[in-house]
Batch of 2 targets.
Target 1
Amino acid sequence: MATINISVPDLMRDYVQRRVESGLYASVSDYVRDLIRKDQESSEKIGAMQALIDEGLASGIGKRSMAELLDEARLQAKPRSAA
């Protein structure tokens, strides 16, 4: 496993230490790894959402009204909620 050294202000160091002392994390390294994992997951979700936005923009201007789109969405949602 690789090692990374970082510098943080005292207030951040104290906060991280309190998180470890709370028992939620085994060590400072465990806490930092958890933060990185959460950031990776968030970045992947944002990337997927951006891809959907790009796809929508590339598809051009639609011909249906917002009311028609909402009606269609409601119809598609009904079977799922009834199950």
Note: The chain has a mean pLDDT of 93.
Target 2
Amino acid sequence: MFINHPVFVVISWICSVFFCLVINRRKAKKIILSSLILCFAIAFFNGIMNPIGNTVLFVWLNNRNFTMEALFYGAVIGANFASIMIWFSCYNIVMTNDKFMYLFSKFAQSTTLILSMILRLVPNLEKKTKTIINARNCIGKTSYRGSIKDKIHSSMEVLSILTSCALEDAVITADSMRSRGYVSKGRTNYTIYSKTLRDKVVKSIFIVLALLVFPCIINGGISVKYMPEIIFPKADIFTIIAVISYFIFLFIPTAIEIVEEITWHILKSKI
């Protein structure tokens, strides 16, 4: 999120697209298309709103310049946002509540529980909203017909029901966790996960690759100047190492998924 160097941004976007295609084939096209629309929209509006730049592509309303520098900077920011959006869509698939609890419950049990509830809040509310609207449609209280006043009134009723459901679910969850002895001393956890040698090796590789990027950051290798002209920092050995490490760092999840899928197909063929 903090690196706006075009090379790093493009690598992040490409790796996020590959990972999304591997783990979420059904919705991958929709997510990637949405990210591209976001990227183009940010690039275009930045070019319109920001007249700073030496290379004028054309002049429009009230002699306002549309510059290449503003367009390029908007494209970089848009691609950055797009890659972040795709990465988080992948995160929502990979990181389930039980995984999140397994990783962090030993260190901060109450905080982990609250964060877990927050992370699943939006998907749960979305499902409940659809259920409430469908139930109201079945009894004739649709929110798509009538005057604007009726629609607003119907929407407020849905919001009121949804708020009540959310508060009730929170109370039920809190009571349930308390009755199970959550955060009490001597409590043991059951989990289907366990740390293996592969996990430790992959974690070590991630740490090493991340550390290899920092010399480039400290040396100013990612500091690109966009206004009023585009000036890239001079590429050196630190930049080359950082680019390669960054690519490997982001491509590891995709590689792991591909290897596991190939292994699974081989095992299925032997049955």
Note: The CA atoms of residues 68 and 208 lie 38 Å apart.
